[in-house]
Specification:
Blueprint (H helix, E strand, L loop, with lengths): L4 H20 L6 H16 L2 H4 L1 H19 L3 H46 L5
Helix pairs in contact: 2-4, 2-5, 4-5
InterPro entries: DUF4398
Keywords: Signal
Protein name: DUF4398 domain-containing protein
Length: 126
């Protein structure tokens, strides 16, 4: 007796459903993203971002807290998004802090050069 379409359809439908469900459940928790965000916040904090880029650092800490809360509630996609936001904000805080420090050092060197030029022009008496 030949195989009917109904006999083939049921196993095929079961295979399609099983592969679709497996695809939905395969997203791992964003522990790596959360860890990277924590490290970025620490790096920004170590670069004195609390003094030189406080708004950026506060945004990073807020996003990190949100990511940790979302993770504990099992909201992995929200946790991943917030962790990536926290890392980006922390990197921005780090960059702003480093820029401020570099500009301060540049201004100090320019002042030293101006003083040296002044001394050279006055004949080096001082």
């Amino acid at each position: 007796m030949p195989t009917s379409f109904a006999q083939i359809r049921l196993p095929l439908l079961a295979a399609v459903l099983a592969s679709g469900l497996a695809g939905c459940a395969s997203t791992p928790p964003p522990t790596g993203d959360l860890s990277a965000a924590q490290q970025a916040v620490i790096r920004a904090d170590d670069a004195d971002a609390d003094q030189y880029a406080p708004q950026d650092l506060a945004a990073a800490r807020s996003a990190l807290s949100g990511a940790q809360a979302a993770m504990s509630q099992g909201k992995d996609e929200d946790a991943r998004r917030l962790a990536l936001t926290a890392a980006a904000e922390a990197d921005l805080a780090f960059a702003h802090s480093r820029e401020t420090l570099a500009n301060a050092e540049l201004n100090q060197r320019r002042a030293e050069i101006a003083e040296l030029r002044r001394r050279l022009q006055s004949g080096g008496d001082q």
